[in-house]
Amino acid sequence: MAFILPHFWRSQYLGQQKDIVIDSNCDTVELFVNGSSLGYQYPNADNFHVVTFNNILVKKGTLSVTGRKGGQLVKTQVVMAGDPAKIILTSSHSRIDAERSSVAIIKADIVDSQGNHIYGATNTINWKVSGPADLVGPDIYESDINKHHEMDGTMYTDMPVAI
Predict the structure, then answer these.
(1) What is the pTM of this model?
(2) CATH no., domain 2-79
(3) Which pLDDT belongs to residue 153?
């Protein structure tokens, strides 16, 4: 497994140098920016399987990691999104039975024109149901990102959000 913490790979940081953190259970991880290698790190128990590539120049494009463990390769990437272009709705079910116990989970995500997730999207979401169904959960999702120490909220701090 290899996971890139994506919080600095956003257009607001273009041209800045940021530390890129990788969580991985691999023996080695190699970081790439737009296909160019920036070196290797070695996650292990001593560093809690978390490594940092320091002072990486944030550029438009793709940040990727290749991890190696026991001859296996693991790859993951984060693509810097463009401008928000649309909301994508997905459902947990393509069809549900007309029963009182039937539930479908609908997820909303904001993406760019290429379908890349927009990190940091905190738009207010208003849900409405028409027809013979009930909305389970709040009808308004307003980001809790600035609700420090409050007792209520939806725990929504970034897209995607589901109801």
Answers:
(1) 0.74
(2) 2.60.40.10
(3) 67
